[in-house]
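Re: that backbone. Tokens:
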């Protein structure tokens, strides 16, 4: 698997701005099929038109879903599975940040679950689970989960943060949950054709998420986008799985990510929240 590969099917969530759009533009040059997800039909159409014009050799397809609505996520995965026999690279990039300052407004998704947990964890968890057969159908497949170095331990007595809400904590625990799922899936798929890794692309890059948080950018979109492309395509990572990367360095995640009891508790809780979709 490398940048010269021309028959891969790549799926990128949150592909209409920021890291997602940057990575989509980089990977569009590879040929094959590039599937783009977004929650705005107009933004999706604009990005797809631009990429189709620049890279006519690549099939560009779009899928609309609001990750705050898990029903839409489930419907999207069914549409993808009906249209494509395999996925070689899945990049779970879509996400929501702290919210607006002072980060004290608790929001919920359509199912009533806390919004950051829903968008940053439950939606990509559901999506990945439902698309796993398509990953297994590829010769070699990679799952890349865009997480964060900012991780908050999960309090299982208050996982939906119904008490003492703080947007930075909500964000941090949702990203830690995604890393914990990364480690679980890597163990589950060990020895198979599918690798699973998580990445912190950059700190406070110039994205919409950083802007909404009222934080001055400390990095460019390209400085975070390039490590995602590297993790998704570099031949040196063909057999690397179960890692958490700070850009291109494999680093430790929060200690809770290595606690098997904590991961089991999260998995059971997640299955309970997503029981409708089993």
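Recovered sequence:
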């Amino acid at each position: 698997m490398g940048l010269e590969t021309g028959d891969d099917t790549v799926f990128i969530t949150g592909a209409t701005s920021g890291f997602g759009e940057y990575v989509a533009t980089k990977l569009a040059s590879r040929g094959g099929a590039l599937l783009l997800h977004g929650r705005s039909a107009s933004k999706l159409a604009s990005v797809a038109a631009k990429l189709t014009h620049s890279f006519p050799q690549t099939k560009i397809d779009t899928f609309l879903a609001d990750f705050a609505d898990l029903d839409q996520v489930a419907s999207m995965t069914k549409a993808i599975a009906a249209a494509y026999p395999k996925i070689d690279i899945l990049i779970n990039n879509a996400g929501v940040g702290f919210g607006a300052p002072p980060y004290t407004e608790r929001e919920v998704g359509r199912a009533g679950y806390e919004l950051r947990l829903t968008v940053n964890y439950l939606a990509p968890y559901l999506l990945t689970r439902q698309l796993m057969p398509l990953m297994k159908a590829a010769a070699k497949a990679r799952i890349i989960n865009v997480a964060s170095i900012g991780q908050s331990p999960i309090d299982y007595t208050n996982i939906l943060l119904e008490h003492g809400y703080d947007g930075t904590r909500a964000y941090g625990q949702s990203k830690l949950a995604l890393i914990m799922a990364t480690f679980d899936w890597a163990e589950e798929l060990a020895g198979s054709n599918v690798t699973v890794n998580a990445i912190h692309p950059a700190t406070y890059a110039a994205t919409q998420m950083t802007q909404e948080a009222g934080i001055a950018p400390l990095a460019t979109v390209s400085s975070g986008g390039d490590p995602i492309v590297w993790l998704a395509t570099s031949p040196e990572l063909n057999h690397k799985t179960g890692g958490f990367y700070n850009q291109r360095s494999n680093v430790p995640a929060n200690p809770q990510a290595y606690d098997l009891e904590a991961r089991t508790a999260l998995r059971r809780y997640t299955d309970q929240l997503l029981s409708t979709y089993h």
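The CA atoms of residues 74 and 277 lie 7 Å apart. The domain at 9-277 is CATH 3.40.50.720 (Rossmann fold).
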